[in-house]
Here is the input.
Amino acid sequence: MLVLASPPGGGKTTISREIAKRDPETVISVSATTRKQRPGEVEGQHYYFVSKEKFEEMIKSGDMLEHALVYNNYFYGTPRKPVEKALTEGRDVLFDIDWQGNRSLAKVAPNDVVSVFLLPPSWDELAHRLHNRAQDSEEEIARRLTKARDEIAHYREFQYVIVNRDFEASVAAVRSILEAERQKRDRLVGIQSFVDTLKPGN
Amino acid sequence: MLVLASPPGGGKTTISREIAKRDPETVISVSATTRKQRPGEVEGQHYYFVSKEKFEEMIKSGDMLEHALVYNNYFYGTPRKPVEKALTEGRDVLFDIDWQGNRSLAKVAPNDVVSVFLLPPSWDELAHRLHNRAQDSEEEIARRLTKARDEIAHYREFQYVIVNRDFEASVAAVRSILEAERQKRDRLVGIQSFVDTLKPGN
Here is the structure.
């Protein structure tokens, strides 16, 4: 499980999608949320849009791997089943979530979560990107800038940090992290049985 | 500091040279040894060949970062100065050493050493590679096979493990590990000062 976090406008979504596109061994976890669907967002691809009641039901029945209340207003959470299915198939799961989600996931599976934080190259650049999202109101932009400061304040909770200056370089860096983590001794399933075969006659 | 270890014939030397060749930010640490120079070996490139007296002098004066007695016969060690110079210049240092060297280095600099163990794809393949080194006597080959079993028995002491089935794939895996480790939050010099600049007006 690889968490890719960043402030809003920091690149976590575009970068995680690019990686899932290039690497067939990875799949993106689609979060569930109670917030309203925005123009252009596709149900089941960007989010699962559910009612507050449905969300609370999923929490109760254990169907949420982790969840959090964001902006004190909306629930965001990770449905458990698709993640477990992908991991069982030997695939890596990318989580495009925030620091709260990362903290919850790390609690649920401390040894299986790798976390990466993408920092913007400068504050101006970040503000510029948020302003350029035409769909958002001034109020929404202001709220996101506040969220951005809050998110950046938590970068120390992440194992890896990338300054997202260049899209291709950042994608390459995240892919290297994925490749490297796959070679961690602890993660190599069956390695001891393999080593046991390394003796004369094999 | 990245340690690349393997049984003799396991590929640590060719792979670390290939990486140093492709990546100008890395440099190979040249070990000192008291064993005899073999045909084709170049002083200062493959090893620094020194007398037992000189080696012991270097240990006493603190000029060895780590050292070990191998085969109960010869000293192998890492001269301190070239390593410190490269690290000061911001370069990564590759160590093509064995489990004893890795253990000593990890003791000297526990947070700065990343260790990778290369396993052969099979015992037969390893024996085959050792037999094909025409320069070695049967006695030497037998000794290396013994050393190989001893080395493999220590693979659990390494953070990353790669089964060296394919040269290019193994080089790519080690490079990914280098790239990833460079993005570890702890290793990013000055990251906190950079994050401090991420606020309105910058």
About this structure: Chain A has one domain: 2-196. The mean pLDDT of chain A is 93.
